Amino acid sequence: MSTVETKLAELGLSLPEVVPPLAAYQPAVQSGPYVYTAGQLPMVDGKLPVTGKVGAEVTAEEAKELARTCALNALAAVKSVAGDLDRIARVVKVVGFVASAPDFTGQPGVLNGASELLAEVLGDKGVHARSAVGVAVLPLDAPVEVEIQVELTQA
User: Which CDD domains does UniProt cross-reference here (predicted)?
Assistant: First the structure.
């Protein structure tokens, strides 16, 4: 088990199976030393635990937890192409989308769920640049979607 996966276990988490694509794309691709993930929904065992808009059917606190799940799914996607999460030199960028009720403006707080998980698991390597974007709707009526870009060390 990698050091990263050991840290996940210490946090009471385990790396899930990679979420299969919903359309014509790959969950993650590597280009040079970088891995780019597709947008990861908060799927758990192949299902969305919650659907709807944040600030309406979904609370900001629920959405923050869902963003953590998205980040965990993104790490699984990274591992699927990198082979070992210990190869992560740093998380470069996180982009998060929040399906938001018209008056909801707390997207950064929601995306803290993903950012905080990456920092907990990877330490300084998990600190990153980030965009938090409110959108009208996401695939499958998911409340949140997260993609990450990581730099790898040499194999």
Answer: YjgF_YER057c_UK114_like_1
Q: What is the CATH number of the domain that holds 9?
A: 3.30.1330.40
* Residue 29 CA from chain centroid, whole number: 15
Mean pLDDT, contiguous 10-residue spans, the chain (155 residues): 90 93 94 98 96 98 98 98 97 98 98 98 97 98 98 89
> Which alpha helices (DSSP H) does the chain contain, by range?
3-10, 60-82, 107-122
Q: For residues 100 and 133, what is the distance between their CA atoms, to the nearest angstrom?
A: 9
Contact between residue 2 and residue 86 where contact means Cβ atoms under 8 Å apart: yes
The angle formed by the CA atoms of residues 24, 26 and 31, to the nearest 5 degrees, is 130
Q: What is the largest CA-CA distance in the chain?
A: 47
Do 2 and 87 contact (CB within 8 A), yes or no?
no
Instruction: Name the domain count of the chain.
Output: 1
Let me know: does 3 contact 15? Beta carbons within 8 Å. Answer: no
Give the residue numbers spanning the domain of 89: 3-152
